[in-house]
Amino acid sequence: MHVHADCSAPRASASRVITRRDGASRARALLIGIFTFLIGSHALTPERARAGDCSDYEDKSLCREAISYESARGLGLGTGVRATGVSTSALAYSPGALALGNLYHIEGNIDYIGVGDAVALGGGVVDSSTSKLGAGFGIRGFLSGDGGYDGLDGRLGLGFALSEAFAIGIGGRYISVSQEEPDAEEDDELRDVEVAQGFTLDASLRVIPTEGLQIDVAALNFVDLKESEVPVTIATGMAFAVGDAFSLGADVLIDVSTFDNPSLTVGGGLEFLAANLVPLRGGYRGDLARKTHAVTVGIGYNDAQVGFDIGLRQNVASPNDSIKNETRVMAAVRYFVN
């Protein structure tokens, strides 16, 4: 089966899925059981508490945005074009896709987040070549000046291919982030305020019904931390590849925990692989609840041993002047062990 996916993967490995043998039945049953339990237990919860700092906002644009874990490739593709992601993009968006490809990647990255006035330094490793279970681990630390994010954000993901057309996965995320804010009791003083802290979970399903078409469905942060920065989100995506060099896709993200009613973020992008080495990317992202819109671009380079990606997201419209022109830029370098 051909999988047109993340152009950050070397061309020899991005088009393959590891063959799973019958001897993997025990691991498959275990992962299916965990996946079903986590999704089912959350779905049966009668009512989830909303993020306390946003449910009563008349102007939703003032609500803090999610502290999203991204890949440099995905940042250049609007909302990530999640249905094509493998490697570190799978770690960021869809743990089920960690089972796809025959790859072992080590990455280092740097991420400037204008909204949080912070720089995040991070790294990760993703392996779908040495075990029947695909796995990935990533961590980043936030560095900032006055008023910016500080703390850690890490995740561990596992994915398993049930067949050539289906893969499922689960992921755990731990986040501990604070931000300096003015102290109401002390003039000209700042105090650390907890923005988000705790452990949450992701789960996803990747479906490949026919060559060139991929569909991804994920439940993100579904252990509710009751913070708008870590929203419970249902993410859906669809992508289609035209040959090996061109793909386009769209995503719909449904935030079900931040406001009184579910809120949508929509977008997508297209990717063209020039000269079989240089991926060129562009996209759009629209947060419909906050009425914030952004354009995105990206570029990369991949050969048999190393890869480089840079992605940029530029806000172009928002009723909130403090974020109207904010920028996010992320760069990543990968070494292809396999």
Short description:
This protein has 338 residues and is mainly beta. The protein has helices at 11-14, 25-43, 72-75, 87-93; strands at residues 104-113, 118-127, 134-144, 149-161, 166-182, 190-210, 213-220, 233-242, 246-255, 263-274, 278-287, 292-302, 306-317, 327-336. Strands 1-2-3-4-5-6-7-8-9-10-11-12-13-14 form a 14-stranded antiparallel beta barrel.
Would you give an account of this structure?
With 338 residues, this protein is mainly beta. The protein has a domain at 11-45 and 81-255. It is built from four helices and 14 strands. It has helices at residues 11-14, 25-43, 72-75, 87-93, and strands at 104-113, 118-127, 134-144, 149-161, 166-182, 190-210, 213-220, 233-242, 246-255, 263-274, 278-287, 292-302, 306-317, 327-336. Strands 1-2-3-4-5-6-7-8-9-10-11-12-13-14 form a 14-stranded antiparallel β-barrel. It is globular. The two termini are 19 Å apart. Mean pLDDT is 86; it is low at 11-24 and 41-52.
- Classify the beta-strand content into a percent band: over 45%
Can you give the helix content as a percent range? Answer: 10-25%
Low-confidence parts lasting 5 or more residues at pLDDT below 50? Answer: 11-24, 41-52
Mean pLDDT: 86
Gross morphology: globular
Q: Main beta sheet, described?
A: 14 strands, antiparallel, barrel
Provide key terms for this protein.
338 residues; 14-stranded antiparallel β-barrel; 4 helices
Q: Topology of this structure?
A:
Blueprint: H1 11-14, H2 25-43, H3 72-75, H4 87-93, E1 104-113, E2 118-127, E3 134-144, E4 149-161, E5 166-182, E6 190-210, E7 213-220, E8 233-242, E9 246-255, E10 263-274, E11 278-287, E12 292-302, E13 306-317, E14 327-336
Antiparallel strand pairs: 1-2, 1-14, 2-3, 3-4, 4-5, 5-6, 6-7, 7-8, 8-9, 9-10, 10-11, 11-12, 12-13, 13-14
